[in-house]
Amino acid sequence: MTDAQTHIRLSEVLSALSYALDLTEGQPEGHGVRSCFIGMSLAEHLDLSSADRSALFYALLLKDLGCSSNAAKTTYLFGADDHATKQRLKTVDWPNLLSSALYVFRSAGEGRSLWTKFKHVTRTALGGMGAARELMQVRCERGADIARQLGFPEATAQAILDLDENWDGKGHPLGKRATAISLLGRILGLAQTVDVFFQDGGAEAVRPMLRRRRGGWFDPALVDLFLERVDRPEFWRQLAAGDLAARIGDFEPADQILRGGPDELDRIAAAFARVIDAKSPYTAEHSARVAEIVAGMAEQISMGEDERRALTRAALLHDIGKLGVSNLILDKAGKLTDEEWAKMRAHTDFTYRILSRVTGFSALAEMASARHERLDGAGYHRGVPGSELTLAARLLAVADQYEAMTAERPYRQPMPQDKVMGILSDEVGRGIDADAYAALSAYVEGQSAK
Fold it and tell me: Which 3 state secondary structure label does DSSP give 214?
């Protein structure tokens, strides 16, 4: 890491990573950044302390930290693509019986047989508000917990916890009412909904939505303030512009700018590994385990500390692109169709695109996205030959395969360690690197001897 990278603005890192959260929520690219712009524009007209504005800024960027944790449950209940189901969810007026019933009927079992649709409509209806509350509770509590892990103040965590509460007490997960909901949480809920409706129908769709939900979903004073002070042509022009991510630092309080060095970047990578691994019950600790394995392999070949640190971060983030893959595919017990397999293979490209955005992590993009490449060039997503793969990428590929085969998957039980090592041994020279395999063997033997 260079000296310039030891004091990176955390807003640059986290705003880029927020694009991964947009993926798993099924929102158009940049939703988190736009929500941040909306919320901070509203905050300009509120008497908030500098510390509270900083807490709000990061809560807006990271409001969806817990969103991956209910993806599998959403797919189970609805029997449908979790991305599409979640995307529609943000436009539904849940307390309205007709609105929620139409949403369930449209989303449950979408694109599948009538029997499957009926089964999932029934399952969702029987779950009712209890199921919705559980989904929101898991999401909000996990998001708040990860925000604390990142070292943000309790005000940031509380805002994320209150994200889906409604002013009239009909929100989730606790049914808080009015000012029992934190002010920052009230801003988050309004900001995210404004962006969803703006993306769907522009400013003309936002205004009637706010008036309808004033005093129901949203704090009436915040709605009035937004319509009176924020609702201006220039605001909507900026919201529609494509440069908000590059300008996101402008909205952070100048006297509260947060910067981070290597330790902070390590903590961010570890926190986002939790987001990634929560996407599927079959990958609950996959990223953390791959990081542990590859770090042990790096020690076997006496890799330098800086290289080892970068490799560990890449391992923690290597599956970030899977946030863009439906749980219908990730958790499928049977064989994937050609179309499903193509969507699964796209996750490495997603990983590259996300990490390439991140200041401080961009150097990891090639490494993290290459772990399905093969020495013979038959891998994906670029299909490059082994001569173009770094040693770090080769180590990560082997660690990932070893962990995946020794863990449970929806289509099989964990494989015995000896069988896995035999399978990998057969691939040496064709699919995997001999030195990487030797490093794994030494690491596994060392672990077995303990």
Answer: strand
Residue 3 has pLDDT above 50, yes or no: no
pLDDT tens, 247-299?
A: 999 999 999 999 999 999 999 999 999 999 999 988 889 999 999 999 999 99
Q: Among all residues, which ones are annotated catalytic?
A: 322
DSSP state string for 85-138:
HHHHHTT--TTSHHHHHHHHHHHTTTTS-HHHHHHHHHHHHHHHHHHHHHHHHH
Residue 36: what residue type? C
3-class state of residue 262 by DSSP: helix
More confident residue, 302 or 124: 302
Degrees to nearest 5, angle at CA 314 with 62 and 71: 45
pTM beyond 0.85: the answer is: yes
**CB contact set of 205 (below 8 Å; sequence gap of 6+):** 197, 198
First to last CA, the chain: 33
- Token pair 């892990």 in the structure block, residue: 149
Q: Count the residues in the chain.
A: 450
Q: Where are the alpha helices (DSSP H) in 2-81?
A: 10-25, 31-43, 50-61, 71-78
Which one of 89-93, 122-126, 217-221 scores highest in mean pLDDT? 217-221
SS3 64: coil
262: exposed, middle or buried (Cβ count in 10 Å: 0-12, 13-18, 19+): middle
Distance between CA atoms of residues 40 and 101, nearest Å: 34
**What is the distance between the alpha carbons of residues 327 and 107, in angstroms, rounded to a whole number?**
15
pLDDT at residue 62 greater than cutoff 70 = yes
* C-alpha span between 423 and 85 (Å, rounded): 39
Alpha carbon of 251 to those of 10, 389, 420: distances in Å?
13, 39, 50
CB-based burial, 131-141: b 16+ in 10 Å, e otherwise: bbbbbbbbbbb
Q: How far is CA 18 from CA 32, 249, 286, 297, in A?
A: 6, 14, 21, 31
Given a contact cutoff of 8 angstroms between Cβ atoms, the answer to whether 86 and 22 are in contact is no
Number of Cβ within 10 Å of residue 88's Cβ equals 16
CA atoms of 350 and 21, how far apart (whole Å): 12
277 vs 288: CA distance, rounded Å: 8
Q: Which residues of 222-232 are buried (b: 16+ CB within 10 A; e: fewer)?
A: bbebbeeebbe
